[in-house]
Design goal:
This protein is α+β, with helices and mostly antiparallel strands. About 30% of the residues lie in helices and about 20% in strands. Strand 4 and strand 5 form a beta hairpin. The structure holds tetrahydrodeoxyuridine (THU).
Length: about 140
Amino acid sequence: MSSLSNRRIEQLALSAVDACGRAYAPYSKFEVGAAILMQDGQVITGCNVENASYGLSICAERVAAAAAVSAGYRKWRGVAIASVGGVPPCGACRQFLAEFGLNTPIILVNLIDGARSVCNLSELLPRSFGSGDLPEIT
Ligand code: THU
């Protein structure tokens, strides 16, 4: 069960769809939008940004997460991700998002049929590595 109301889920899903429209994906043609809901109700978005040097491309989730942190937010209430197929975040993005809350609700939005599927980041990243696994630095 998600801690988010249906209204919040819908708001976040629509923001992710909107962000997807700003994706820069001329190489893969696979456009992704992400939207993160902050504790104070603000929503910060990101889209994937590709590059002619393919390996430099950045996923939508990490663009959104970095924008949120840059705006002063380190805790969030949920993340929505919109794409054709409603795909889950890649492994790198799971790890990147987990830094700011392994227990975060994730909403996957399928642009084909409009389906929304809700899960939790902890389900997507079992036996995760985090700051608690690092040795204490004295
Ligand atoms: N992509 C994302 O934006 N998020 C993911 O979690 C999976 C992949 C992007 C990266 C690249 O621009 C395109 O989708 C194809 O892999």
